[in-house]
Amino acid sequence: MSPTRHHGTRGRTPAPSGGRDARTAGTPAPVVATAGVEPPPVADVPGTFPAHALDVGALRMVQAVAEHGTLTAAAAALGVSQPAVSQHLRRLERRLGTAVLDRSGRSVRLTEAGRVLARHGATVSAALHAASAEVAALTGLRAGVVRLVAFPSACATLVPRALADLRVRHPGLSVTLVEAEPPESVALLAAGEADVVLTFAYDDLARSARGTDDVERPTDDVATAAPDPRLVHRRLLTDPTLVALPADHPAATADGLALGDLAADTWIAGCPRCRRHLLTSGRAAGFEPRVAYATDDYPAVLGLVAAGLGVAVLPGLVRATAAGVPGVVLRPVDGTSARRVDAVTTRDLLRVPAVVATLDALTSAAAPA
Known about the structure:
The chain is an alpha/beta fold. It contains 13 helices and twelve strands. It has helices spanning 19-24, 56-68, 71-78, 82-96, 112-139, 152-155, 158-169, 184-190, 203-210, 272-284, 298-306, 319-323, 353-366; strands spanning 101-102, 109-110, 145-150, 174-179, 196-202, 231-239, 241-246, 266-269, 290-294, 312-315, 328-332, 339-346. A hairpin with a 6-residue loop joins strand 1 and strand 2 (109-110).
């Protein structure tokens, strides 16, 4: 054990006056290593002093002496006592085996070794200030990147409104967007490759998978998946499901349409989760949907319906897209369940202001007009 290592309170640097209040008031607290506590040893580089002989606090103290001229002024600038600075520098000299200060006169002067350390101390101080400024910019939403992943119908509706709101409120914040269906999107979040994802789950499938648990599983295998405690869900909206029919379909103007009324029709299925919802709903209504086409591209689904090639169950978020497609009628239908649309992130990322701002923008975009 090094003779200079201490484990008690003797020789420790007193806390800067103001302590936590100074930091919360917006004044950057000086970065000073606690005197008497040496950093843990790390691998040494041949031909140099032991790597633990130097620490950030020591470099900052030597640099402060060079800048302010005396130990008293340096201590005041660093927010510590003059004896603490003197003790820390003497300890540094013992570790290095050479003098850092020349104390032979009425005032102290840096030795050649001290001037070298002061030069590097200035570099360290600049790096610390730069890091502090960059983190402050992220915290203040003047900078930062949020990686967003969303499913197609949300990309066409919720996401553009949310991103437009973020651009106005936080112009320094950047959001990247990748389109992916759940469970792929949630897998990206769990793997650390996304910050916020939009996901959905149909109520009937979720109930059969989770029992009384209200947490959507981060996988498509909803029958066997377990909840991931790292993930946090924010409900954005409950999206009703509709049936898309060709305009000349006999049921296009019928009252009280039920899913079983379409048992003889050809069906167009969407993504795997949407297809499973269609099959589950059809079987509950007493028939097996005859799926002839499958695509997760909603404009393609609408085009197939408009051509009279089949009918489809679609989420309510596609209403605006369907309104621009002639020959398609969207109708509410009994026998299908709504889907829950959530924004999902991790518990750790909830402490990142840019992520919270993105969640808030998505929530606002999903609110009824």
